[in-house]
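I had to read the description of the data format several times before I understood it. Each protein is reduced to its one-letter sequence and a matching series of backbone shape codes. The format is easy to grasp once an entry is in front of the reader. For illustration, here is how one protein appears when written out as sequence plus structure tokens:
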Amino acid sequence: MKYNIRVILGTASLLSILVVGCSKITTPAAVPARITTVTTVTTSVTALSPTTTITTISTSLPPFPESSITFDALEGTYMAPIVTGPDGNLWFTEANGNTVDKISPVTDAVTSYNVPTDNAGPNGISAGPDGNMWFTETHANKIGKITPTTGVITEYNIPTDYSGPDGIVAGPDGNMWFIETNGKIGEISPVTDNITEYSIPGNGGFPTNIVAGPDGNLWFTESSGSKIGKISPSTGDITEYNLNNNASLDNILFPIGITVGPDGNLWFTESVANCIGEISPTTGSINEYDIPAYDTYPFAIATGPDGNLWFTESAGHQIGKISPQNGDINEYDVAGGGITAGPDGCMWFTEGNTIGKISPSTGAITDYNVGN
């Protein structure tokens, strides 16, 4: 079994951007208090046991006060994004299993579909306007689509090599818009299959996730740039907004997840800053709300049927919700990766090699083992 790991040096720990096969990362206690270097590293580790100490990851990593980093690995597959499909099922990707899967909220039955390209790294996933599910293949540098009724998968090569596709969403123009973590935003037409790419200003900011905003633009997070960006689907023009903490290399906030809230604002997670943020699409004004627990690294975020924003905590091993009315935050003791609102009124989430759901009204949690 091979585990593909991408990491970045954060203010207090080593933050996982894409960790396939790992449930938790712990670092030496004496990691420098402030960021001196931001470095993205991709490597592969074979035969990783449930607890393995890796003495050397890459010579390009900044020096650590100690020489080892410990990964607590999952025995099954790792799954991240999850969304509701047009067929009423919950669809998710298994990067380590190299599959696109669905689970029925009615029968709990799970069906897996193998991605044609080996070790493709299926990642972001979203429903398209053509009735298909579209997804990114981070390792294969492709965009894929799967027909829910047949399970047939078609793949499309991204023009830029090593683009690192991540989040994907349907745009208001009928195209699928996706992130290229090398610093671009891409779009693919479901009609012609043509792909167009747009470069983000500056160093690209390591974009991560993207969502269609209520203003007709596509909004995205720039993780290492500590910015929120928007792109016009009609012109390709990009506008960026600095987060409130005057982000620099000394103060990386690392926004990752983003969604549209019931109040019409864009809500996002700030993983290193340990807070939830919102930005007005009309004024660009930003508010941030601290998460009560320390160092939780909030990850994905989605609007719930109860009018709250629900988010996962990748290091806190909790799921939280925040009220858009007053910013109050409540947390539940269950780990999560991706999260979405299901057709049954529950919030569904990925959790290692299981899929879980939580009732917004009662807080009751149900888990389903779906690992291969």
